[in-house]
Each structure stands twice: as structure tokens, then as C-alpha cells.
Amino acid sequence: MTLFVDYSLNGVAQGMIFAALALALVLIFRATRVVNFAQGAMAMMTTFGASTLLEHGVGYWWAFVAALAIGFVLGALVEVLLIRRLEGRSELNPVIVTIGLLVVLEGIAGAVYGNSSRGFPAAYSQTGLVIGHTTVDFSHFDVFVLVAVVVLMLANLVLFRATSLGLQMRASAYAREMSRLLGVRVGRLLTLGWALAGLAGALAGLLTAPTSSFSPYFMDLDLVYAFTAAVVGGLESPVGALVGGLVTGLCISYVGGYLGSGLEPLGALALLIIALMARPKGLFARPPARMV
Fold it and tell me: What are the structural domains, with CATH classification, of the chain?
């Protein structure tokens, strides 16, 4: 029973990290209708930026905020310099470009920082919490991750459901020409969508780095798990990203704990296949509107 509780808490902690990156994927998909396979690499670059600032004596929280700002700017630059050039062409082109961007960013990081793993500090203690006379497998840092991801999800919900800006972003993603005719500045909103997704991805990188081997490739596997979480919950649902992250984290933790860590990717693959067979559009996908 103790092992089950530990695996469950570990799954929640992992799931929140997957949910953070899944929320970035959901945000950019809702705002631009693009699945960004470079999201993890962009997060990696911003985290290396924070690491560089820390090495030069900048305070942790200043470096944290700077990394979020770098993510925001990087997301905007990717849209302006790369994605915007592909407007009006095949929907597959942006996906291919993001895969190429993933390779380029990891190559640049490897050339600049090296491919060896390094440490990255956590905002709070990673020692398990003490409840009564028992130490549980859930730390102060895990609590911080949980709160940060819930705040990110709520901000995502408020943006798209309670603001005119979010409504215009969704309209720009679904019907660009119609939105332009209505006076919406589609180009600026698409850039903003990429920028906000870059910021959310930067947060995911900062939350992931203290819990893994920090290297140019440290976000690759997490991107796979985050994509699984986004698909399980629904690529258009912030709540689905959070729930999908939890389900994915728990699944991986149970598989790794009871069957061996080497089978964790297979556990994620099995979860993805089951989700696609049972609910192809995700657990929280809305039914399509019917014209009568």
C-alpha cells in the first residue's frame, strides 16, 4: 500500500510537468491550429538561458522571469520568421518546419553548451514532505509545480473563454479571411498566440529541468508524454491537458514502478492508442455543432 501511495504521488508530480507542456501545445493549437513539435526544444533553449544567467550571478527569480520573457520573444520570432511565410500553403508545412526547428535548436544548444548533462536548481526543496511521522514522495517543489500548472490552466481558460482577445485569437485560427474582413488583425494575433505558447513552454522547461538530466535533449521524452496528455484530454481543452497530464503521469509511474522504468514509453504508447480508440478527439472534446 505504501508503494502504491508513493507511485501515485510521484505520478501526480510527473503528470503536472507533462500538463505544463501539454498546455503550451493546447494554447498554440487553439490560437493557430498548428501542432508545434519544436515546443520542447524552444523550452530547452529558454531554460539554458536561465542557467546562463544563474551562472553569472543573477538571482533565481530574476532568471526565472527572464526565461519566461525569452520564451515569449522566441515564440513570436518563430511565427514571424518561419510560420508566417507558410500561410496559404499546405497545413503540413508548418508541422515539418517545427520538426526541422527542433533539430536545429538542439544542434545549436549542443554546439554552445555541450551535450553533457548538468544540474539545474529547483525553486524549493525537493525533499519529501513530512506528514505526521511519515515522509511522503511529494516535495515543496512538487507543490510549487502543482500550483504553477493550475494557474497556467486557469489563465488559459480565462483567455479563451472570458476575453475578447481570446475570442479573436480563436476566430483568427479557424477563419482567417473572415476575421480579416471583420477588422481583426490576424497576423498580430497569430504572433501573440505563438508568443504565449513560448512563454508557457518556457515555464514547462523551468519546472522540468530540476527533475531530470538537464541537457540539450532533456525535453524530448517529456514532449512525447505531453503530446500524449494533450491527445488524451483533447487538443483544444486546457482542462483536458491538465487531466491528461495527470492520467499520463500516473500511468507512467505505475508502469515504471511495477514493471520497470524501461517500459514507461510503452505504457505511454498504450495509453495513447487506447485514448485514440475510445475518444479520438479527447476526453474533454466538445461535440461538433449540428446545422439544422
Answer: 2-278 (1.10.3470)
* Distance (Å) of CA 112 to CA 71, 94, 108, 122, 292: 18, 26, 6, 23, 59
- Whether the CB-CB separation of 221 and 17 falls below 8 Å is answered with no
* Residue 127 DSSP SS3: coil
Tens digits of residue pLDDT in 81-107: 998 888 777 778 888 999 999 999 999
Question: Which secondary structure element, helix H or strand E, spans residue 191, and what is its range?
Answer: helix 186-208
CB 45 within 8 A of CB 74: yes
Separation between Cα atoms, residue 43 and residue 282, nearest integer Å:
25
Which of 202, 205, 171 has the alpha carbon at shortest distance from 185? 171
Distances (CA, A) of 259 to 208, 271, 272: 24, 15, 18
Backbone dihedral angles phi then psi of residue 201, each to the nearest 5 degrees: -65, -40
